[in-house]
Amino acid sequence: MGRTPRDPVLNLEYPVEIAVEISMYPLTESYLAPIQDFIDTLRGNPQLHVVTNTMSTQVLGEYDVVWDALREAMRGSLETGPRAVFVTKFLPRES
Question: What whole-number distance in Å separates Cα of residue 40 and Cα of residue 35?
Fold first, then answer.
């Protein structure tokens, strides 16, 4: 029987589950709509668990799925504007 592969850096078995806390700070006075669009994009992915509060959004799921969703949501935000700052924290989770 084969062994479950392990991430050489984090020393965790695949699939690696992660939790990401992300805050978006649009550089505009009309900041609510871009934040809601960003959150709606993330919530559109059924493979993610997305939790919001007044300060940040937590995105939980399988490592590659989370990264792909963040890349898509951030790219969409950058393409449609306004400019924004994203602050993130990443935490490996036990599956």
Answer: 9
Instruction: For residue 39, give both structure tokens.
Output: 């959150």
Residue 12 lies in a domain: no
The model scores a pTM over 0.85? no
Give how many domains the chain has, as a whole number. Answer: 1
Length of the chain: 95
In a domain, 72, yes or no: yes
CA atoms within 13 A on the CB side of 3: 5
CA-nearest of 3, 4, 13 to 92 is: 13
80-92 confidence digits (pLDDT tens)? 999 999 999 999 8
Question: For the packed helices 63-80 and 32-43, what is the interaxial angle rounded to 10 degrees?
Answer: 150
Q: What token pair was written down for 64?
A: 């590659």
